[in-house]
Amino acid sequence: MESEGSMAAIRQLRKQAPLLGPQRAKAYVMAVRDGTEPPEELVALTRQQEGCPPLPIKTPAGPAQLQHDGDSESRTAT
To answer: For residue 74, what pLDDT is reported?
Structure first.
């Protein structure tokens, strides 16, 4: 019964932290099961990788205004 719980924990851990291979996931789960802290290199693999921060979005102030150039109309943001 206990090994079924460990295997389920390993599968769940690998879904959440795909960087952990089977052996590393097993070592992590066994450490937690035994009441010890998993090694830091395994813990680091469970953290989400930080991506690039999103680029700022620049919003023009005010609505676009129509300017009349003779026969044609052109839109410009002012």
So the answer is: 52
CA-wise closest residue to 7 among 47, 46, 15, 19: 15
Instruction: Evaluate whether 28 touches 42 at the Cβ level (below 8 Å).
Output: yes
Tokens of 71: 């026969």
* Residue 42: both structure tokens together: 């395994």
Token readout for 18 is 């795909």
Give tens-digit pLDDT for 8-65.
999 999 999 988 999 999 999 999 999 999 999 999 988 876 667 777 877 777 777 7
Are the C-beta atoms of 38 and 27 separated by less than 8 Å?
yes
Tokens of 30: 């066994």
- Residues 6 or more apart whose CB falls under 8 angstroms from that of 27 comprise 38, 39, 42
Q: DSSP 3-state assignment of 44?
A: helix
